[in-house]
Amino acid sequence: QQQVKQSPQSLIVQKGGISIINCAYENTAFDYFPWYQQFPGKGPALLIAIRPDVSEKKEGRFTISFNKSAKQFSLHIMDSQPGDSATYFCAARPNTGTASKLTFGTGTRLQVTL
Amino acid sequence: GAGVSQSPSNKVTEKGKDVELRCDPISGHTALYWYRQRLGQGLEFLIYFQGNSAPDKSGLPSDRFSAERTGESVSTLTIQRTQQEDSAVYLCASRGTGASEQYFGPGTRLTVT
């Protein structure tokens, strides 16, 4: 049973546009929600993360929006650039501390065109 | 400092053979994770080591899979009698004590023919 559902599977955005990737979860024990960026041939790298005590977190062009009641969170990439073309994974971890394992979404392949 | 390293970067093996994959975590990181990433899919948790505690093996798909870690250093993931469905990228990640972020290695691409 997939605990974190991610959509869309793939996304094409023009340079300068906004890329939006959505994730939904069911486990109310989740309390840490990171997004990872993965380039071909590389391991995933942490991009930005949020905890449920805030509804939004922004770091540069990247913003996480979090809706606790709907159990949804999304990644927004503003002014998308060709260098942002990568696969993005959302993830979630329960509130039993850092020892808990992450549950990942299935990934979104983003392509930013010129 | 150096990040997480994994070896080999690519491994092609025949069905039925055993393989060993190696992970060198970031120095001082007490936690180490193994994940499997099948083509076009998300990361699937396999096993987690935390210091000298008993590992969390809840993600291992079968008894053909095992992993070891000596103290807070190198870990090896062993797959016995490999099957074609074992073909995937195997990723290792490490995490410092009390930290949330997991740092991933580049992975080992395993192809079983």
- Radius of gyration of chain A equals 14 Å
Contiguous helical run count of chain A: 0
**Uncertain ranges of chain B:** none
Task: Give me the number of helical elements of chain B.
Answer: 0
Proportion of residues in helical segments of chain A: under 10%
Task: Fill in the keyword field for this structure.
heterodimer; A: 114 residues; mainly beta; six-stranded mixed β-sheet; five-stranded antiparallel β-sheet; B: 113 residues; four-stranded antiparallel β-sheet
Tell me about this structure.
The complex is a heterodimer of chains A (114) and B (113). Chain A has 114 residues and is mostly beta strands. Chain A has strands at residues 4-7, 10-14, 19-25, 30-38, 45-50, 56-59, 62-67, 72-77, 86-94, 103-104, 108-113. In chain A, the strands form 2 sheets. In chain A, strands 2, 4, 5, 9, 10 and 11 form a 6-stranded mixed beta sheet that branches. Chain B contains no helices and 10 strands. In chain B, the strands form 2 sheets. In chain B, strands 2, 4, 5, 8, 9 and 10 form a 6-stranded mixed beta sheet that branches. A 4-stranded antiparallel beta sheet of chain B has the order 1-3-7-6, with no helix packed on it. In chain B, strand 4 (31-37) and strand 5 form a beta hairpin. Chain B has strands at 5-7, 10-13, 19-24, 31-37, 43-50, 65-69, 75-79, 88-95, 103-104, 108-112. With 113 residues, chain B is mainly β. The chains are: A mainly beta (114), B mainly beta (113). Chains A and B meet through strand 4, strand 5, strand 9 and strand 10 of A and strand 4, strand 5, strand 8 and strand 9 of B.
